[in-house]
C-alpha cells in the first residue's frame, strides 16, 4: 500500500546486498532502480543501461559484464509508471521482462508495486508474463 515503506525497504535491501557482495564477490551485485525517475516510454529497452549510466558505468563495461556478472535488480515503483507503460503499445508486448530487455542480463529481479494499482489480469500479463517459471 502507499506509504508502507516499499522504497525505504528497497534501499535497505540494496545496502544489505552490497554488504554481502563486499564480503563475497560471488554474491549478486544489487542495483536499485527507481522507475518513476528513469522510465521513458521511448527507451524502455535501455532502462538498465540508463540506470547504470547514471551510476557512472560506461556502456562498454556494461556490455562486458551484463551476462557474466550476477545482478539483482530492485525495481521500485512500477505502479507509478504503469499508466504510461500501459499506454505504450510496444508491439503488443505487455510483459515488462521483455520490454525492459532483462533477458540480456544475468539477473534476478524484484519489483515493487502497490497492490491496488494493478488488477489480477495486469499482474499476470505484465509482471508474471507467459513464463510462469520466472521468480
Automatic annotation (TrEMBL):
Cited InterPro entries: NACHT_NTPase, P-loop_NTPase
Location of the NACHT domain: 1-120
Database matches in Pfam families: NACHT
Residue ranges that the Swiss-Prot or TrEMBL entry lists as coiled coil: none
Record's protein name: NACHT domain-containing protein
The organism of origin for this protein: Reticulomyxa filosa
